[in-house]
Every structure is written in C-alpha cells, then in structure tokens.
Amino acid sequence: MSLVKEFTKGIWKENAVFKLLLGMCPLLAVTTSAENGLGMGAASTFVLVCSNVVVAILRKLIPPKVRIPAFIIIIATFVTVVQLCMEAWVYGLYQSLGIFIPLIVVNCLILGRAEAFASKRPVIDAAVDGLGMGLGFTLALFILGAVREVFGSGAILGFNLFGASYQPILLMILPPGAFITLGLLLALMSRMSQKS
C-alpha cells in the first residue's frame, strides 16, 4: 500500500470516529468547543505518531508476552510529555481538557494502532499511519466541537457569529448535546458514504 493511501485512509475511509467509532470518551467529553477539539486532537496525534514510531522501531525486540504492557508504557511516556508541555505552554487549554489528557494512555485508537499496525510495519509506514489517523481524529473532534460551539454559544474559536441577539441552545454544550450532535454527524457521514 502506498504512503498516500496509508495517510488518507485515517482521514476518511477508516476515520477513527466516523467509521470505526473509536475514541468516544474524549470525543464526547471535551468537544464543548472547537478549540478543545483541536487541542485534544493535536495531543492525541502527537502521542499516536510518536508511539507508532517507537513501537515500529522496537517491534522485533519486544517479547510477545509483554507486548501490550510495553505498548502502554511507550504511550504513557508520550502522554506525560504532552501533559507537561500543555501545562507549561497552554495552561488554559490544559485546564479545559483536565483529566482527559492523561486518559489518552488508554485511548483505544492509540493502543489499537500500536497493536494492529505499528508492531507489524516499518517505521515510515507506522509514522504515516499515525499521522493520518491522528489528523482524522482531530478533524472529527474539531467538527463536533465546532457544531456544538456554534449552536451552544453562537461563536466559534472566540468569534461571535450571530450577534448579541442570538439565543444559544444550551443543550448543545451539555453532555446530551454531544450525543445528539454525534448521532446526527454519524448519520450524515453514513449518507455521504452511500452516495460515493
């Protein structure tokens, strides 16, 4: 498979959220705004790419019996790096994402890509796969966060779209709004897939 196909499959054909339904916990919990979606997506993408590369490098050295614990340690290392960097440089976002940053360690998307792909492929393939899957995950987080933010507050990324007279739909920034929006987006993506 070419590197271009490896990269693009994670964005649409095998999108972690819209096609594989992976990573639902951070998706539903932190996407009250587009900024939160981008922040969590960037953090997850960094961890995914770095852990895929390290797993691919060490794939022949890790004994099969300790494969999963070794992957978790590798992933946890990069999550710690992300957490400390976010705390140092983007503290507001760090506070918004809260406990969901350390929970990246157990994100089934990241562990699944390490197990199913990076542990069986060369480093370049693993890096490209991680980047494509991460960008697809980020795109899904951003879209869900943007829709919820626009309807829930009338703004996106700090820009007011509808003026002071807009009556926000409070439900959209509450937990049920995440489920409703995700359901509608999944229906839309399914419809788009059927047409193509």
Q: If you had to describe this structure to a student in words, what would you say it looks like?
A:
The chain is an all-alpha fold and 196 residues long. It has one domain (3-195). The chain is built from 8 helices and 2 strands. The protein has helices spanning 3-9, 24-30, 34-58, 67-89, 91-97, 108-116, 123-153, 175-195; strands spanning 155-156, 159-160. Strands 1-2 form a two-stranded antiparallel sheet. Strand 1 and strand 2 (159-160) form a beta hairpin. The longest helix is centred in the last third of the chain and has 31 residues, at 123-153. It is globular, with a radius of gyration of 18 Å.
Number of domains: 1
From the N-terminal CA to the C-terminal CA, the straight-line distance is: 22 Å
The total strand number stands at: 2
Q: DSSP helix count?
A: 8
**Rounded Rg:** 18 Å
- Uncertain segments of ≥5 residues (pLDDT<50)? none
Fraction of residues in helices?
55-70%
In what range is the share of β-strand residues? under 5%
Structural class: mainly alpha
Mean pLDDT over the full residue set: 93
What order do the helices and strands follow? Answer: HHHHHHHEEH
User: What is the 3D form?
Assistant: globular
| Biggest sheet, spatial arrangement of strands | 1-2
Instruction: Profile the largest sheet.
Output: 2 strands, antiparallel
